[in-house]
Amino acid sequence: MKNLSGIVRPLVAWYQAHERDFPWRSDPSPYRVWVSEIMLQQTRIEAALPYFERFMQTLPTVESLAAADENTLMKLWEGLGYYSRVRNLQKAARQVMEQHEGRLPASYEELLALAGIGEYTAGAIASIAFGSRVPAVDGNVLRVLARLLDEEGDVMKPPVRKRLSAIVWELVPADCPGDFNQGLMELGETVCLPNTMPRCAECPIREHCAVAGTAKAAELPTRTTSKPRKIEERTVFTVITDEAVPRVLLHRRDTKGLLAGMWELPNVLSDSGSPHWLEKQVKNCHDAPGGKHVFSHVEWRLQGQVLLVDPFDPPADYRWVDQTELALYALPTAFRLYTALLPQLLNKEDVQ
Ligand code: SF4
Question: How remote is the CA of residue 146 from the centroid of ligand 1, in Å?
Answer without folding.
Answer: 10
